[in-house]
Amino acid sequence: MWLAEFAMLRYGLTGGIASGKSTVAAILRELGFPVLEADRMAHQVIEPRQPAYNEVRSIFGDAILDPDRRIDRSRLAAIVFDDREKLNQLNAIIHPRVEQEMVRQFMELESSGKHAAAFIEAALIFEAGLHKRLDGVLVVWCLPAEQITRLIERGVSEAEARRRIAAQMPVADKLALATEKIDCSGSLEETRRQVEAFATKLPQSSPGR
Hints:
Blueprint: E1 9-15, H1 21-30, E2 35-37, H2 38-45, H3 51-60, H4 73-80, H5 84-112, E3 117-121, E4 136-141, H6 144-153, H7 158-166, H8 171-177, E5 180-183, H9 188-199
Helix pairs in contact: 1-9, 2-5, 3-5, 6-7
């Protein structure tokens, strides 16, 4: 497995849309744990002059480009949202490159000797089977009604919010596969207490140093 070589603990961080993943990631960083961002990596691998850029263009055409000739992710998302075949084609291009970048960044963290545990924040940890190659997965969750409320506060219609939630892996399925769970339905302080309690279970210094 591609992560088997690491002594540093590797945890996944995932959850549904508007569940509180970014909040938990920020708290983990405050506590000194690196949190890699799969979404940022996915942005980078489709930048112009990256190999994936032309591959994506060849499938989806120039209609997905913005005025600067960069791939407009919102246009791309609109195409793949209701087209499973197109989504699978896109994932086949992006996921291997994101995986390579995660390995590279994990290796950098390991070689620095500063960290005994690190995280990957990724929406599709379970769907991509990545959880099988990690030491554990932290699932952030809240009730669907709370997700809808948060999405509406972001300017999304209720119908669109429900559609986005329904398109994702059910939270019950994610919780069934979770190593640890964080309930983000309450206040920020309640979330922080849960994250801090989880963090006490993790090593605080680099192994073997």
